[in-house]
C-alpha cells in the first residue's frame, strides 16, 4: 500500500461512483495503471464493497438508539444464537462485542418509539438476553462516512 493506493481509497470513499477514467484523472494516473491498482485493492479486500449512503430521514428513520445488552450465559451456542438473531433484526445497523459491564453495544434505528418498543420485545424474547439498557441518541455530532487509511 503506497501513497497512490491510499489516495485511491480516500477518493473512492467520498465519491464511489467515479468511473475508472474519472478516478485516474482525479489521482493523476493514466486509466490503465489506475484500473490495475483498483483491481488489486479489490482483490486484496481493501475495498470490501460499493454502496450508497441513504438519507435516514428520507428512509423514514427518525430515531437512533444505543442499546447495551448483557447475556445470561456465555456458552458458545447461546452466543451464536444471539448473534444470528441480531443479524436478522433489520433495526440493528451496528453491533459490537464490548468489554465492561455489558456484553454487546448495538446501534438501533426506528421510525418512532413504537417501532423501538417492538424491537425491544423481540430482543427480550431471546432466551440468552439477561438485561438491556437503552440510550436515545438526541443528536449526531459526528457523521463520518470515510475511514482513515493508516497502512
UniProtKB/TrEMBL annotation:
Q: Pfam families from the xrefs?
A: AsnC_trans_reg, HTH_24
Gene source species: Psychrobacter saeujeotis
Q: What is this protein called?
A: Lrp/AsnC family transcriptional regulator
Checking InterPro entries in the record gives: ArsR-like_HTH, AsnC-type_HTH_dom, Tscrpt_reg_AsnC-like, Tscrpt_reg_AsnC/Lrp_C, WH-like_DNA-bd_sf, WH_DNA-bd_sf
- Note the SUPFAM superfamilies from the entry: Winged helix' DNA-binding domain
This protein's record includes keyword Transcription: yes
Q: Does the keyword Transcription apply?
A: yes
What sequence ranges are listed for the domain HTH asnC-type?
1-62
Superkingdom of source = Bacteria
**Keywords in alphabetical order:** DNA-binding, Transcription, Transcription regulation
Q: Residue span of the signal peptide, if any?
A: none
